[in-house]
Amino acid sequence: xxxVLLGCPGAGKGSLASLILEKHHIPYLSTxxxxxxxxxxxxxxxxxxxxxxxxxxxxxxxxxxxxASKMLEAPENENYLLDGFPRTVNQAMMLDELTTKLGRPLxxxxxxxxxxDEVVYRRLTGRQICSKCGAIYHTRNHPSKVEGVxxxxxxxxxxxxxxxxxxxxxxxxxxxxxxxxxxxxxxxxGNLIELDAELDSEVLLEEVNSLLxxxx
Length: 216
Ligand code: AP5
Ligand code: MG
Ligand code: ZN
Fold this sequence. Notes:
This protein is an alpha/beta fold and about 220 residues long. It has a domain at about 1-25 and about 80-115 and about 175-215: P-loop containing nucleotide triphosphate hydrolases (Rossmann fold), CATH 3.40.50. Helices cover about 50% and strands about 15% of the residues. The protein contains eight helices and eight strands. The protein has helices at about 15-25, 30-40, 45-55, 60-75, 90-100, 115-125, 165-190, 200-210, and strands at about 1-5, 30, 80-85, 110-115, 125-130, 135-140, 155-160, 190-195. The strands form two sheets. It has a five-stranded parallel sheet with strand order 2-3-1-4-8, sandwiched between helices. A three-stranded antiparallel sheet has the order 6-5-7. A hairpin with a 5-residue loop joins β5 (about 125-130) and β6. α1 packs across α8 (about 200-210), α2 crosses α3 and α4 (about 60-75) packs parallel to α5. The longest helix is centred in the last third of the chain and has 25 residues, at about 165-190. The structure holds BIS(adenosine)-5'-pentaphosphate (AP5), magnesium ion (MG) and zinc ion. Zinc ion binds near residues 132 and 135.
């Protein structure tokens, strides 16, 4: 199964992905998570992209395509759940070309749609993530059992640098400027499935699991 999860910052892509992966054991490919690790490890790539990531700007397409192509071409990634890629029209067109060439075309394109920016602000200003395994929490919507400690692996919870209000504003702006036109591109192609991102996670999961039934 080859799935793409689209949605603005804070729409719930990462949270929904981890629920989907509990049932469907396919590789999880997240450009955001990959980039965050490169920054944390202070690699050459990390140094190159740190400023974009932390301020909330998109990483340039040339860099993102290099990373995404490597992920998609890996023999073990014949099936995948893509999170946070593509997010420009240019990336979407290159993704189509690459996956067609590889004989691994996209099957399900899900768009988590948020109607009100306030939802994004509330979600991102309360988010905590595990410093080790990346598990996602929220101080009110989805708190960890022990404050500041990951339920899954016991490591500390941290706040993402790009969840500062100023960066969230820039991320949303980048979304409307560069990613929304790409969502329209998929709509025009007629293969986009819209999901109401404001639904409860379990309700969303049920909806997605029934959609995925026919691709098993
Ligand atoms: P990335 O890591 O992809 O971040 P993002 O798109 O901004 O999305 P988030 O991870 O912030 O939100 P999410 O939708 O995953 O929400 P979550 O599930 O955590 O990218 C980061 C950066 O990397 C970019 O800004 C860019 O610089 C770079 N980058 C990455 N990919 C790129 C690309 N292709 N091109 C160029 N640059 C790229 O949920 C948020 C909160 O809400 C959590 O606290 C959660 O508990 C809560 N929540 C989730 N679902 C629900 C629900 N249904 N009900 C109530 N609360 C919920
Ligand atoms: Mg995410
Ligand atoms: Zn953890």
